[in-house]
Amino acid sequence: MARQIIEVTVKNHLISHGYDNNNKEILEEVQSENWSKKAIRADRIQSIGEKYILTTYAHNRWIYWEYQESYQDIVQQLND
Fold this sequence. Notes:
This protein is mostly beta strands. The chain has a domain at 1-6 and 22-68. Helices cover 11% and strands 55% of the residues. It is globular, with a radius of gyration of 13 Å. The mean pLDDT is 94.
């Protein structure tokens, strides 16, 4: 069976590297100058908010992707 992939226009993102000794999330902020298209496998999506899509990433990391589409557009792609 083929894996579902959605196309999203992303820009800035936050990479979560886990937590420190005080249980504070360690975030790396990445600023991009331009929006770009990204294909995201649906099974990597952990949650969707009105500004960010949280996805799993390599080495047990998570990425919060800032996206341009509307929340409804993203949900519709996942339901198609």
